[in-house]
Each structure stands twice: as C-alpha cells, then as structure tokens.
Amino acid sequence: MSRSGNKFEVIIAGGGIAGAAVALFLSHLNVHVTILESRPYRPAIHDGGIIMLGPNGMNVLQGLGLADKLLQRESGLQVSHITINDGDGQLIGRVPQGSVERHGFLSTVILRWDIHEVLLDEVERKGLDMRWNSRVQSVDESDSGVLVHWSEAAEMKEKKADLLIGADGIWSMTRPSMYKCMGLEAPKPRYSGLVGIGCILSIDAIPGLSKFLTLEDPVVMVHSRLGFVGMMRYDKDGKKIGWWTTHEASERSREEWNIPKEQLFRELHERYSKSAFPIPQLVQTSEALDERPLIVWPVYEVEKLGKWHSKRIVLIGDAAHAMPPHSGQGASQALEDAAYLAYLIRQHLDQRSDSVQGSAGTELHSLLDTFQKERQPRVDEMIDEANRRGDRKRETSQIGMFIRKWILKILILFMSQKWMDRWFAYKVPGIDEWAGLRSAATQE
After folding, report:
1. What count of Cα atoms within 13 Å lies in the side-chain half-sphere of residue 129?
2. CA distance 197 to 182
3. Parent domain of 181
C-alpha cells in the first residue's frame, strides 16, 4: 500500500493553514507526508489580512500543542464581543465571541500570517517534506493509489501516494483534477458582487481613535446603507488597528482589480464621507500614507460541492467549501477539517492490520465518505449564515436600512454565550487524544 517502506503515503497540495495543520497531525502517525506549496518561498510578515479565530479553531491548535505559542505572539488580542453600530454611530448591539469557561478560549483577533507562521515553524522543526514553488498539474487515480504530477521550480515531477489531500484553496488545482477523475466538470469560483478593501494604521494616527476602539471594546463593525466597515485592534500593545470595508462593486478582470490609488480613494470618499467618526478619518489617513497601500480583495465563492472526494483524493478547507469571509470562521473550519480528517486516518491505520487483503481501497473510500458526511452539514450551516451576513453588506434604501437595523437589534437582543455554543463549543472528535501521541513521540 505504501510508497515509503510500510508507511502510508500522503501528498498534500497546499501548505496554507489547512495543509500545514493536517500535515502536522499526520506526522504523529505512521505516515509519510509530502507538502506541495505553490508559493515560491515562505510568506513574509503580514502576508494575508486580519482575521477572527474562533474558540473552536483555537481548540484545534491546542490539539497540536500550538495554542500557547500562538497566544505568545505580539499579535493576537482576545475579544469577548463585537460591537455593532449603524452608519450614524448609534449602537445596534454587542455580539458575544466566546468565553473561556464555556468554550475553552475567547475569540482571537490576529493576523492570518501569525497562525500560518506558527504552523510553518512546527513543520520546519519536525523536518517535514515541504516543497515550495510546487503546483499540482494532473493526477491519475486507480484503486491502488493516486499518481500525482506536479511542477517544482519549472521541473516536472511525479509520485504515487495512497492519498492526495487538496488543501490548495478556492482556486484549487486539485478540485478540477479530482472531478476529472470522476468524469465530471468541477464548478469554478465566481464573483459574489462584493469587494473588500482594507489597511493597517497606527491607532495614534487619528486623534480620538484610541478612545473609540479600546482594549475592552476592540472590535467595532458598522452597517450602513452603502456598505459595511469593520475596524479592530489586533496587537496586545494596542498600537495598531486594521480597518476594512465590504461593499458592492462591479466585476473586473484580475488585472483591473489593481485599481489606481486615486480612483480607489475617490470611490471610498464618495461612499463613506457622511458616515460617523471614525470612518471618514480612516479613509483620509490611509490615503495620506503612501507606504501603506490599501489591500483589495474581491470576494469569490464556489457553489456547494456534491463531491469532496473521489477514491484516493479528498478536498479540505476552501478547496472543498469556500467559506465567505463574513462568518469569521474560514480559518477555524479549515483547522477543523484538518483535525477530523487526520482523526479518521488515525482510526484507519489503527484498524489496517485487521483488514482483509485487498480491501484497503474500499476502506479508504468509506473513510472519505464519512469525512464529507460528518463535516458538510456543519460547514454548510456556516456558509449559509455567512451569505446572510454578506447580503446585509449590500447597498439598500433608507427604509431597507431601517428594517435591516431593527432586525439586527432583535437578533442580537437574544444572543448570549450559550447561543454561540453551536459554533464555538464544538470540539473535533479525538482532538484531546493527540496530546498523548505527541508525548509518546517526545519520549522515543
């Protein structure tokens, strides 16, 4: 079965959060892992934006023994709630974001780069086979394994494995390759009609901002008639803030999204000049900082997949279920996928010695089927909620905004930490058992 002695051979396409996490879980098993990452080299600081990592995501990192390392970094502010205002600066409500008592952790506002960095540090420490500048080109799947062809620094390579895990994001190359193996055409990412634009600033750059965004109330999100604006402190010293807007915009080609600075800020001034403090000031201050250009990210989505796996290929994270950013659960769900798939593989390997000769492929297909059946309902619920939140960021009339505001007020009125249990209290099966495997490996 294996291509590395008696080890189960796994190739992971994608070395992001999902790919690195599943590789680290599998490194505690009798598995040989090869990670193919398309980036030419390890990401630099601030690669990616600011995200909210939920308690459920932190519990996965705890399973890897990395939660404390993440919380020791300069970035990573613990938040118990999000404050929601309207465009006039009036309070709509406060949404709970977890509690240590109920969920093990609070939510953490942090740079995506910090999460990735902690995972990559551990990948390097363990000496896992990480191939930079490598991208899957095609696959040949059979009952006995999957032959993966990839380009690595312009050189074509191939390797046969027991399993290919596609963790290569919304623009996955593994997804269409897998669907081709099944004689199907994979759905392609499509533009949602919403674009995100954001920037990082010093909190002292705007007078009065430190009193508006406090360490006790570090995250404020504003729903206005013309779009949505979020702002948050994310470092423990409270010296920096990230802000972003999400609003409707016409579709552009990839080159056209490189919008000239003058046009970009002209559109932002037109949209938000009448908003309450500090939104106009955030736009104006960002415009004056040439060394900190705005980041523009159009929001793409993929229709819900009927198939997350074939015989020997499985998709996880955004490759399987592109999570819109409006839920704050993208990274957490990628981590959950990684942990649950690794748990099932662990069970599979534990039972393999008792398998009937020649049944390994059938068992593996059953494992992958279980993975999708158990994960998809939870993920679909969050995608549906994310889409509802995204729709609230689209333009509306004055009457529509009035209705939207009061619906939000009523919803938030009934929210409590208990109400958030269905998201934050979830723990991946077997997650606490990995501590024992780590301990055993240390003693060997």
Report:
1. 14
2. 38
3. 8-190+301-438
